[in-house]
Design goal:
There is one protein chain. Residues 1-10 have low confidence and may be disordered. It is built from two helices and five strands, in the order αβββββα. Helix content is 25%, strand content 31%. Strand 3 (40-45) and strand 4 (50-60) form a beta hairpin. The longest helix has 22 residues, at 77-98. The strands form two sheets. The chain has a three-stranded antiparallel beta sheet. A two-stranded antiparallel ribbon has the order 1-2. The protein has one domain (8-98). By secondary structure, the protein is α+β, with helices and mostly antiparallel strands. The protein has helices spanning 3-9, 77-98; strands at 15-18, 21-24, 40-45, 50-60, 65-75.
Length: 117
């Protein structure tokens, strides 16, 4: 493996932690790799797995929220725990670096029916 390929394999990843041991990680990017922008995430669970669905909101108004479904990732509950831990650590670093998160925008409210509550 040439040095340039080694550098490319290690982008953004430092270590894989397995209990107390820390092993250097290198990764090879798949030809199927893509990096979509998402602004909506939905999560589903079953006894066997956790599904994370990444979407983009195409339209949001008082009558409809239209999503473009981009990708779903299905993983074991154990892997989901690792993802939860990694996201928590990343978000903590974000807040330390940039401050508190912006408030989540509120979705438009559907009009109430005439004479209804």
């Amino acid at each position: 493996m040439v040095d340039n390929e080694k550098k490319r394999l290690a982008t953004g990843r430092e270590y894989f932690s397995e209990g107390e041991s820390r092993v250097p990680v290198s990764a090879k990017r798949s030809e199927k790799y893509f990096s979509p922008y998402v602004n909506n995430v939905q999560v589903g669970v079953s006894y066997y797995d956790v599904s994370v669905h990444f979407n983009r909101v195409l339209e949001a108004n008082r009558d409809i929220v239209l999503l473009e479904e981009l990708v779903s990732v299905v993983m074991s509950p154990e892997q989901a725990v690792d993802l939860h831990r990694a996201l928590g650590q990343a978000l903590q670093k974000y807040q330390e670096r940039y401050g508190a998160f912006r408030p989540t925008p509120r979705a438009p409210q559907a009009p109430s029916a005439p004479g209804g509550e």
